[in-house]
Amino acid sequence: MAGYKKYNNDGPSAEDKALDLFADMMIERIETISKDWSKPWITEGSLGWPKNLSGREYNGMNALMLLLHCERNGYKIPRFCTFDCVQRLNKPTEKQAKEGVELPRVSVNRGEKSFPVMLTTFTCIHKESKEKIKYDDYKMLSDEEKKMYNVYPKMQVFRVFNVQQTNLQEARPELWNKLTNRDTIKLDEGDKMSFEPMDVMIRDNRWICPIKPMHQDKAYFSIRKNEIVVPEKAQFKDGESYYGTLWHEMTHSTGIEGQLDRIKPAAFGSNEYAREELVAELGSALVAQRYGMSKALKEESCAYLKSWLEQLKESPQFIKTTLLDVKKASSLVTQNIDKIAQELDRKNRVQQDNGQRSETRQSTPQEKMFYSSVAYLQSTDDTSRLDEFRNKGDYEGLLRLAKEYYDGNGINEQYTFTSPLQNKGDDLLVEDKDFAVVYNNSVSGSYEVMLKYSEQEIRDHINRYGIRLASDDIKGVAKDMVAEQFLAMTKQRTPVFEMPCGDILYTGYNRETDTLDVGTATNAGLAVRHSFLYDHDSSLECNLQSVYTELNRMEQYKKEEMEYSGGMHR
């Protein structure tokens, strides 16, 4: 299939060669599907998500091509490593070096060829000083500070080998056995029509646009209405067909203005329309693969097969722009699904823990715990000792070492949460009654050490220091405290303002808006006239007094005759 691209006299770059290969593989795949359009894009969801040896996931673009590469060559374990990574496996640990332990040498098998993966790196240069900074540091700058930098993206190509192209199984059997265990979220084995994170997303309207299952025969995304309509689940032959159709339309919905800005006005049947269908097809196939399902070509997309082949053969650059869009769209879909899946997992674990504790401590209610970040260790830090404990599976040792990073300071209120898992890829490795350690293999292998606090300790902290720099979770506790105080006050005396003009105004606390609402009493409740943001750095009494002061400054409540000064009645 090669020979359809003309190169310049300097010869093809590494990126050009990679794109040629990717285009060849996609052409081969589409031609296979052309003969049997019911065939899945990736065979039967039989492979887990591609990762490197340390467990870091490849992005959507590389993941798709690595999955096709595995299928093409019969690789059963989607784990990959660079040549340098293979060499690092032969470097002994400090303990092994001291004890003189010699391990069998890990190597790439003779005659094996590597496969390209593409990574975009960014060079950030200050416009005036010409100083370079890391892209991670650039992302932490304010919008104004970012304006002072020029950012230059560059696509780099790295070559990787599948672990089956090495002697890892013989040289490191323990590591090999670990790699054979897959860690994907799957359909409920007891109910092939159930995938709870997606069901919750639809039920609670948590996608970027409404999803409306309706008893009819069409599935589509309406740009004009910004909504997805699909047949009801029961109308599909199985769960994979239902969710695969949903992900196709969800991928479309990511492209509108204000999201990924991918969809441009295009006539039905045009090249742009055909490309958008390919993005939706590949995006939904990747999402399905991630959750252990297969995704066959959508019947309506068959009309575009010829167009896709023609554009791929004409210019491999077509696959680059398409795969980049697939990467962004599938990431947006999976991030939302993973967030809900993590919430459900935490909820289930809490329920299990509460159930276990209730057997031994039935008379003691389980108090909510909070996790406060006290140390964050990433690629710029020396985490080798932590890595060693984690690789050995010695999590108790890892926890003991992690505690040494705590500097003795108190609650870090800005980074205190009800769950230790705050980012995609977070994994709670170990915890005891006081500390927890979270590992994230998708952010340069970072470790976060977290100190645990009871809700009462959080409440005491709020009373002492307020919530000026607090996280939303701590602010939620502060709101609960005000609501409780206000309810207790109303049981003894109702906060009522009698204004100089004679108006009687009643007050209520609105937890949702975090405001003291003031208005008149009606049969239906409080008819709100004014709302004042609650100041959590002051007491309830002080807040009420501040509200009364503000009301007295309003012309509508002043009295021309200075006979009565007004006041707050209890």
From TrEMBL:
InterPro entries tied to this protein: ArdC_N, MPTase-PolyVal
Amino acid composition bias (Basic and acidic residues), ranges on this chain: 346-360
Residue span of region Disordered: 346-365
Listed Pfam families: ArdcN, MPTase-PolyVal
Domain Polyvalent protein metallopeptidase: 215-319
Residue ranges occupied by any N-terminal domain in the UniProt entry: 21-161
Protein's name according to its UniProt entry: Zincin-like metallopeptidase domain-containing protein
